[in-house]
Each structure stands twice: as structure tokens, then as C-alpha cells.
Amino acid sequence: MKLNIALLAGDGIGPEVINQAVKVVNAVATKFNHEINWTSALTGACAIDDCGEPYPDSTHEVCMAADAVLFGAIGHPKYDNDPKATVRPEQGLLKMRQKLGLFANVRPTFTFPSLIDNSPLKRERIEGTDLIILRELTGGIYFGERGRKDNGNTAFDTCTYTRAEIQRLAKLGFEIAMTRSKKLCCVDKANVLESSRLWRETVQDMEKDYPEVTVSYEFVDAVAMRLVQWPNSYDVLITENLFGDILTDEASVISGSMGLMPSASKGLHTSLYEPIHGSYPQAAGKDIANPLATVLSAAMMFEDAFGLHAEAAAIRDVVNKSLAEGVVTEDLSGSNKAYKTSEVGDWLAKNV
Amino acid sequence: MKLNIALLAGDGIGPEVINQAVKVVNAVATKFNHEINWTSALTGACAIDDCGEPYPDSTHEVCMAADAVLFGAIGHPKYDNDPKATVRPEQGLLKMRQKLGLFANVRPTFTFPSLIDNSPLKRERIEGTDLIILRELTGGIYFGERGRKDNGNTAFDTCTYTRAEIQRLAKLGFEIAMTRSKKLCCVDKANVLESSRLWRETVQDMEKDYPEVTVSYEFVDAVAMRLVQWPNSYDVLITENLFGDILTDEASVISGSMGLMPSASKGLHTSLYEPIHGSYPQAAGKDIANPLATVLSAAMMFEDAFGLHAEAAAIRDVVNKSLAEGVVTEDLSGSNKAYKTSEVGDWLAKNV
Ligand SMILES: CC(C)[C@H](C(=O)O)[C@@H](O)C(=O)O
Ligand SMILES: CC(C)[C@H](C(=O)O)[C@@H](O)C(=O)O
Hints:
By secondary structure, chain A is of the alpha/beta class. Chain A is built from 13 helices and 12 strands. Chain A folds into 2 domains: about 180 residues, 3-Layer(aba) Sandwich (Isopropylmalate Dehydrogenase); about 150 residues, 3-Layer(aba) Sandwich (Isopropylmalate Dehydrogenase), CATH 3.40.718.10. Chain A has a 10-stranded mixed beta sheet, with helices on both faces. The first copy, chain A, has a two-stranded antiparallel ribbon with strand order 6-7. The two termini of chain A are about 20 Å apart. In chain A, about 55% of the residues are buried. Chains A and B meet through strand 6, strand 7, helix 7, helix 8 and helix 9 of A and strand 6, strand 7, helix 7, helix 8 and helix 9 of B. Strand 7 of chain A pairs antiparallel with strand 7 of chain B, so a sheet runs across the interface. Bound molecules: 3-isopropylmalic acid (IPM) (2 copies). One 3-isopropylmalic acid sits at the interface of chains A and B. One 3-isopropylmalic acid (IPM) sits at the interface of chains A and B.
């Protein structure tokens, strides 16, 4: 197959981890006889430095023309803690989500047996955890009307959802649930919010189309508790944008495997694959960042964007092998030898 | 002193745990020579059953006339999972918060050494945890304009904050921080929300009035992570209503002492003290519920509403003694003898 992939390395450790994913994807392509056409483009702080825009039109065109987007991470300390800065890397992220129609962020949380002891939670609480949070990504309070009144002394934000937006996200949730244990949890705050009541109503209406799926409805505060108590009691969760922001981050720390977690954002025009970790500016340029989450995001891309399951499995297998043989960066090496980011990438590409 | 206390037992295990707190408060009053004037009133499902209203005017009058309110818990399964029910116990809660002006919910999370192994988190992660979350309780998206458009196919909720509402809450946060380690964390989503930017701006402006307090600003998603990773790295956190709802519940499970956690809601007219746990309808009437969170809420009331520190200390001491001597309900007794709710209350009252 001929695969057109847009490459958005971003800031901080982004370029370093993306480079390793490129090596691995190229190796897989050779092995399975695919032709990869990579197109790089700028986004984030590096794009602001370049042209004053965190998600320039030229980058958008590259993404629109691609079959899939592989993304590193964005963010730079010079923009942190300055909510009044007029241009910020995160704005690029929001603009990209909106313009590419990336309506569903798919965030798996699972455990790697060899990493389970890294978790802040006790082993017996997390063993077997394998859940997916589907976060709505282009609606809600992130994109509603906002502003000031009373000479700036009153501020407001609006959370708006349409039935169609909820259906689109929930449909994906039901479909994913059908491929797994057929359990779906709709997370809302329907005891307070009207938008949550529309979520619940809409999902309830859809239940009849998926008679095999058992749906539960839980309040976001209860889920924030149960995710820490019994994460392995969940399977597929669907939720709105802001709740998803909080819960996916909370879920990311429970498995002890945060540095390895991939994610996908499904779009109307194209889909995007990225590690869940940030741009860790402190580690940038040191060749020490763990590339595995990005490499596993590439596996998600093969499966999800191209329907190439054997290729995805080959990547996951070689990642498991690197973990088993200790070919890992310093965050995972413990008292053993730490490999460099680039060494891990080379090893994976060679052994895939 | 003459202390007028409104007693809102509520639903489920509410009456049982409240009864034990009454015994202990009466014993403390005898010991320290106070006269307690208790006035009971209905709220929650029991009030709906009685008069169709979860927070009747008569109950409001009782609360307004009191120096403090001691509250049990509300909620009944017959109202659960039915967001379209026109009258629900939670509405009583919201109405009560609004009418009493309960603008600040103060939620401590701390560990009891003897309970630390109940936590889903590893011991080394939680030892020394002693934090307070201050949740704004009468503003934000809970009380903003909401509704439907497009024949019910679009729903919206509005999050509104005024500078004055933020100042009122933040002032309390700074004051509490001054009595502790002088560290305050303002939790917001200022990279997205205008209301969060007003929070940050307002708190930043107040920093000069409390030069000894070190203030940090963190995004709610990052806090949801760090609360699980390093809860003992926090001291006092302030946040808006919805974020506080999620984070206080998340924090409640990390210490392993959830069944013991008290809370206070500071009001314009009076203040209210309640355990953080719910009405556990399954346990109602069985004399098995743990009364200690309610008893410790009474301790908070003595200190906070009446400025009676020795009385509060006496309650905390006898609670610690009951834990040390194993005079506890079945949730804490492990393989030892489990005491009944009423037996624990009697023992505490006798030994205070
Ligand atoms: C940077 C920020 C705007 C963003 C979000 O809130 O969506 C981030 O937290 C994320 O989850 O991708
Ligand atoms: C019952 C519900 C409305 C309430 C809230 O969200 O405030 C509860 O979760 C709480 O935290 O007291």
C-alpha cells in the first residue's frame, strides 16, 4: 500500500520520539511492502517561532492531504503560566482539532506486566486494567461562547452540545464496545447539567441499536473515585470534552505505564496519532526520552487508519520484546543499563 | 455557652450516624458546660415524601435560626438514574447551598496511620497526606443559565463567575493557608476557560495581601494526576464548583480513610458540617454504618463555628482512642469484633 503520513514533530522531546517512530514505521513498511510518503510540517511553539501561528495554514494543508497524522508533542515553558499571552501553543492544538474535525480522542489505559510496580496504586488494584476513554474533542465548553461583562469583573463560558455531536461520539463508543467486552459507561453530570441530560437521553435512545451492549450511566465525580479504586472494573467510557480532559489524565497515571500510552484522535478529514505524554522541555535534546508511546501510537495508526493489523501487531511485539530484554530508556531501566532514545529506536527498527 | 444547632439527619444511614454525633456532642457539652439546643428538620428524600419539597421553607427557617447545621446525608435509590424526575433530593442540596449562601466547601483529606493500608495507593505515596480542598459551592456552572434550543436537540449550560465570588473563596483559602504551611494552589483551566482566567487574575491580585503565602497555579487535569501520584505534595487547594466536585471526590479515596472524612460548608448566614460519605441506602437501618466521619464533622463544628478548640480536640482524641482500641464498625474491624453504630456512639460519649 501507499501510505501518506503527515509528520508533526512539535516541540521539546517531540522531534526525538517522532524520529524513532519513523524508523520503526519505515522498517515495518519494508517488511510488509508498503511505500510511505512522509510530509513534515510545523506546529506548536516551533511554528509560532517560525511564522507567529501555532497551527499555520500550510500545516493544515499537509494534514488534510494525508491519510493519517503522526504527532509528537507541543508546548514550551516560555508560554507556560501566562494565560494572557495572545498566541500560545495550545491554541494550535484546539485549532487543529477543530479544523481537522478530530471529534473523538481515543485513550486506552492498560498495564504492562513489567511496569506494574511503577504505579502509585497497589498491584492488586490495577492488574488486568484495560480500559478506553473516548473523549469528545471538538465541542462542549472548549468551543462555546465565552467572554467578560461588567468591565471585566464577570467572566462566562458556555458548554453547548447538539444531539448529533453526542451521537457521533457515542456511535464510536458502542462500536468499540462491540469489539471488546460489550460494556459501555456514559460519564456525565446529569443531576446538574442540561448538556449532560442531553448526553444521557441521546445515549439511552441509541441503546436499542446495540442490544448486546450493556450501558451504565455514572456521574463524573463517582468515576473520578472509581478510576482510582477499581480501574479494572471499567471497559469503554464515553464522555464530553472537559470531563474527558480530567479523567483521561487521571487514568493515565494509574497503570504505571504512562510513558508508554498511545492515543488516537479520530477525525472527519483525517485522524491523528500521538503519545499521551507532553513535550518535556527539560529532557529535550538529551536523547533520553522514552519513544515507546510514540511508537505504539504508530501501531494504533496502522490498525486504525489503514486497517493493517499484522503491521500493528509487529510493532507491539517488538515493543514487548524491548521491554522484556531491557532495551529501554532511563525512565524504565531501573538499576540496569539505560539506552538512549535513538538506540531504542534503532533496536526496534532492526528487530521488527 | 448556649449553642443552637440545627439537625438535618436526611436519608439512608443519615439518621443513624447523626444520632451518634448527637450523643458525643451532648457528652462534650456536659463536660465543658455548654447548653445545646437541638432543632431537627427534614431534608432530602424524606422531605419529599413528607411535603413534596427536598428543602422545605420550614427547614430553611430552622437553619437560618441556628448557629450551625449538622447534616447527615441525603439521597434515595428511587430517585437515582432518573435525571428527568421533576423533584430530586439533590435539588434540595443545591437549594440549601444557595439559600444559606454556603459559598465554600472545606474538604480536608488526611490519613489515619491505622487505616493507611485501606488505601488503593501504596503507603509511601500517601504517608503524611494532609491537604484541604476549598471548593466554591454557590457559583459556576451549577447555578448558571441552562436550557435547550432547536426543539430540544441542543443543550447548554453556562459557567459564570464574578470577581467578588472568587475573592470571597480565595480569601478563605489564603487565611487557611496562613494557619498551615503557607502554600496555596489555585486549580483552574486558564489555558481554555475565560472564567478560569478571571480566577487566576483575581488570585494573582490578592497575592500582595498575603506576602507570606506561596501561590501556585495548576491546571485541573494536571491536579487530577498529581493527586494520585503525590497527594502529600499538596497543602491548600482552591477551585471552582465543578472542578471541586470532581477533585474532592477523587481526593477522598486516596487516603484510605474515606469513611472518616468530615467537611464544612461555610455560609453567609450559617455554616454546615457533614460527613463526606453518602446515604448508603443498602446499609440503612442495620446499625452498621461508621459514625466517625459525622462525629469528626461535629468536631469541625466546635472549632469552626464556635471557636471551641478544646472541645474539638476532645472529640478527635476520643475518636483516635476508639480506633486504637478497635471500637469500630465492620468497615474497619477487619478480622476483629465489629461494633454496632450505636455501640460506637455510646462508647465515644462515655469516653470523651
Ligand atoms: C493543552 C490543553 C488545551 C489540552 C486540553 O485541555 O484539551 C490538553 O490538556 C489535552 O488534554 O490535550
Ligand atoms: C448531588 C450533587 C448535586 C452534588 C454536587 O455535585 O455538588 C454532590 O456530588 C456533592 O459533591 O455534594
